[in-house]
Write a structure and sequence with these properties.
The structure is a single chain. By secondary structure, the chain is an alpha/beta fold. The chain has one domain: Flavodoxin domain (Rossmann fold), CATH 3.40.50. Helix content is 38%, strand content 21%. Strands 1, 2, 3, 4, 5 and 6 form a 6-stranded mixed β-sheet that branches. The longest helix is centred in the C-terminal third of the chain and has 17 residues.
Length: 186
């Protein structure tokens, strides 16, 4: 398979920036891992709120922060608006939000399974998130206080790095060529 310059979109929806930071780390780790360098991966982190076009990439990692057990609207909209393009390439899903030690809640987001099936995703990973009361709205702070949610940064950067290596290894092991992105019309 020809993989030189294999383009990977890493996109996520985030309310307070934590999940965007996970997406940026994932893209950086895809580019920097040994397999990623060998493949010539070019991973780009683009917020889902910017509505990136996945058809311009050969692979996609799509994620979202999780609130009340659901992905954010920007990630859900991107998945449904680009269903055909996403089903036509390898897609990995990730969710961010569980907090505490061990991360709680341990359940998968309600819609992650639906999107995994709908997009025929290679896999889904749940990453611990961050809860910084200083970034929350008044209503969010009241809810966090009432729930006695643990405050802090529970993100596991080693887990993100190892997942990037898994994704790169899966791309390297694919036996069928990945289609080059279609050029945009003039």
């Amino acid at each position: 398979m020809t993989t030189a310059g294999l383009r990977v979109l890493v996109t996520a929806a985030s309310r307070h920036g934590s999940t965007h930071e996970i997406a940026a780390a994932l893209a950086r780790d895809l580019n920097g891992c040994a397999t990623g360098r060998t493949l010539g991966l070019v991973a780009s982190a683009v917020p889902a709120e910017n509505r990136p076009d996945p058809s311009m990439y050969q692979a996609v990692a799509l994620g979202s922060a999780v609130y009340a057990g659901r992905w954010l609207e920007a990630a859900r909209d991107l998945a449904t608006a680009h269903l055909v393009a996403l089903r036509d390439r390898p897609v990995w899903l990730f969710s961010s939000g569980p907090i505490g030690a061990p991360p709680f809640p341990p359940d998968e987001p309600h819609d992650a399974g639906t999107f995994a099936t709908m997009l025929d995703a290679v896999g889904h990973r749940v990453f611990p998130g961050r809860l910084d009361k200083g970034l929350l709205s008044f209503g969010e702070r009241a809810m966090v206080t009432a729930m006695r949610a643990p405050v802090g940064d529970f993100r596991d950067w080693e887990l993100v790095r190892s997942w990037a290596e898994e994704i790169a290894a899966t791309l390297a092991d694919r036996t069928t060529p990945l289609a080059a992105p279609e050029p945009r019309g003039t």
